[in-house]
Amino acid sequence: MTLQEKLDAFKGDFEAGKPPYNVPYSVIETMHRATAELIASGAAGRALKAGDKMPAFTLNDPDGKPVSSRDLLAHGPLVVSFYRGVWCPYCNMELQALQEALPAFEKLGASLIAISPQTSVNSRKSVRQNELSFPILSDEHNDVAAAFGLRFAMPDYLVDLYKELKNDLPSFNGDDSWTLPMPGRFVIGQDGVILYAEVNPDYTRRPEPAGMLPALRHAARATA
Length: 224
Fold this sequence. Notes:
Blueprint: H1 3-15, H2 25-41, E1 58-60, E2 66-68, H3 69-74, E3 78-82, H4 89-107, E4 111-116, H5 120-129, E5 136-138, H6 143-147, E6 151-153, H7 156-164, H8 169-173, E7 179-181, E8 184-188, E9 194-199, H9 213-223
Helix pairs in contact: 1-4
């Protein structure tokens, strides 16, 4: 089963109100409205694209150790995935798919990181629950996400829904801004130029990890 097939199966059960979520359809309608408005805003089209230069960053890993993009690129190409948080089942399924693809990335000399606005405590939980061998870096206030063009402010009605559902993003993120990154995935060459970019304002849609392999092979040939 592909990643998207798994996501579609989960979405079907969730939107049908099946256990354990048992959500009323009014909740689904609100989520659909927010996604449709984000798509219509054109925000995804303003995110960084292939050919753009990646903004350099230094972020802490789950253990509080600073990780620099420059240091990562010194060792080879870099795969970056922006992750909404431990509370998002779609994101967790994506992390698991990336973990499965990690050996293929490493064979081409690449490193893999995820970037999330959540606190290090929640990143450690994500790593543990999803059995990851790559780090989730903490992006306070979604500042790196903003530099990539991914940060967006949640509309008030969606904030109200999250509060009603006890999905406390200020607690998850240590930040009361109620912003999130659009799901985004990037392959960056050692020169810092983006070779592959996939951004989707619909958080239920994620590309297959194997789709990055051509860009990684190109990067590997460029450094051979």
